[in-house]
Amino acid sequence: MELWQQMIRDSVHSVDQLVDRFQIERSDAEKLSQFFQARINPYYLNLIRYKGDPIWNQCVPDNIELEDILGVEDPLREDEMSPVPNITHRYPDRCLFLVTSQCGMYCRFCTRKRKVGNSDKISMKQLESAFKYIEDHKEIRDVILSGGDPLMLTDYLLERILKRLREIQHVEIIRLGTKMPCVLPQRITPKLCDMIKKYHPIYVNTHFNHPWEITKESTKACVMLIDAGCPVNNQAVLMRGVNDNADTIKELLLELLKIRVRPYYLFMADETKGASHFRTTVQEGIDIMDKLRGHVSGLAIPHFVIDAPGGGGKIPILPDYVLHRDSEKIILRNYKHDHFVYHEAKTKRFFTLSEENQPKVDLVNKSNGESKNNGDGKKEEQIDVTNLVFEKN
Ligand code: SF4
Question: What Rg do the C-alpha atoms of the chain give, in angstroms?
């Protein structure tokens, strides 16, 4: 058994452990476990500094989850967009392929609680219909392996999936959506990296939410993946009690860049059942983004998005940089709230001359071009105007 597998075994997960370790009332611990089981591995547990800190809040079950009457089980309607088991096909050229229900840690804010935890929530027996679906849909260029966490599979099983996908000609890119570099970095082993290298291009989307998650171990895991040729991007979620202020987000983004991980998305929290207490207002998110743009390198700035409820996909949100716009100009403000006018380019309409309007040009003094005698001693040039364009306005 590899070290990471042993650490999964050593995780806090049972009702007894929740009672002993976190002083949760037994009856509450039972209800919480029933609602969404806990798994806190020894590595992530060690990152907790005090009760209620940003690490604790992400992993320790809380009664408030049971009081949530607003959240819904599948806010992104992934299940409705699932043509065959294990596949969600929302965007034209890419699909989500759920390959396991297991994770290295169960995040209390998880959007996919309905799919994650018990092994029967995502069936591994139905992978064949998923492969067939991808094979039959030639528009799918990009497959995102998710779950659960695909790095919970053994190297052997993961390689079988990668190999099979690589046999499908139209699959250009494979992405691994994994939180392991953050929550259980011991999973990133030289053996795993050597295996992954064989199936490039493979991109890794990982998920750090707080600067305390960037440790010696998680840095090493990210660097190993990057050195194995995988671009690593981060998808953070803005969450109350975790990272809901500009200083924390800024530190997170800058620390990520230092370990060569590119901040990719900052999500508004989904309207997920049991996770409403994590939600901030959209304005808080916009204010945070406003404190980033111009103040830190553009490399550090993620797309701030709402994953639209009902399956509308990711929609970017920006602070209001456009103060006014008409046909002639746009008035903008910069990060210091200074105003600037940018003038629109003059509208240009281009057209191709119709046959009858083609110009006849006296060729007497011309030497190039196809020409013919027009009967009066002068030559006319038939100019090919197909590619000529004229400014109309
Ligand atoms: S790792 Fe991802 S899928 Fe697993 S519990 Fe956390 S958010 Fe959910």
Answer: 28
Which position among 77, 314, 333, 379 bears the catalytic label?
A: 314
SS3 126: helix
Architecture of the CATH domain 3-320: Alpha-Beta Barrel (3.20)
- The predicted model gives 64-88 an average pLDDT of 91
Residue with tokens 């009457």: 69
Q: State how far the Cα of 268 lies from the Cα of 351, in Å rounded to an integer.
A: 46
Average pLDDT over all residues of the chain: 89
Q: Which two tokens stand for residue 233?
A: 């991007």
Q: Could you tell me if the CB of 116 is within 6 A of ligand 1?
A: yes
Spans of all domains in the chain:
3-320, 350-391
Tokens of 319: 């602070």
* Residue 7 vs residues 22, 187, 201, 252: alpha-carbon distances, Å: 19, 10, 30, 26
Amino acid (1-letter code) at residue 242: V
Does the predicted model carry a pTM greater than 0.90?
no
Q: How far apart are CA 186 and CA 20, in angstroms?
A: 26
Active-site hit among 107, 182, 193, 222 = 107
Residue-wise pLDDT tens digits, 304-327: 999 999 889 999 999 999 999 999
Angle in degrees, 0-180, between the axes of helices 155-166 and 127-136, rounded to the nearest 10: 20
Of the candidates 203, 225, 221, 202, the one whose C-alpha atom is nearest the C-alpha of residue 213 is 221
What pairing do the DSSP bridges indicate for beta strands 329-333 and 94-98?
Answer: unpaired
- Give the Å distance between the CA of 35 and the centre of ligand 1: 15
Residue among 44, 98, 112, 278 whose CB has most ligand 1 atoms within 8 A, to mutate: 112
CA of 274 to the centre of ligand 1 (A): 14
Which helix (H) or strand (E) segment is 268 a member of? strand 262-268
Q: Residue 202: in which H helix or E strand, if any? A: strand 202-206
Q: Is any atom of ligand 1 closer than 6 Å to the C-beta of 107?
A: yes
Which atom of ligand 1 has the smallest separation from the CA of 104? 1
What would the pLDDT profile of 110-136 be if each residue is shown by its tens digit? 999 998 987 777 777 779 999 999 999
Q: Is the peptide bond before 375 cis (omega within 30 degrees of 0)?
A: no
3-state secondary structure 212-248: HHCCHHHHHHHHHHHHCCCCEEEEEEECCCCCCCHHH
202-206 and 232-238: which strand pairing? parallel
What does the pLDDT look like over 147-166, one tens digit per residue?
899 999 999 999 999 999 99
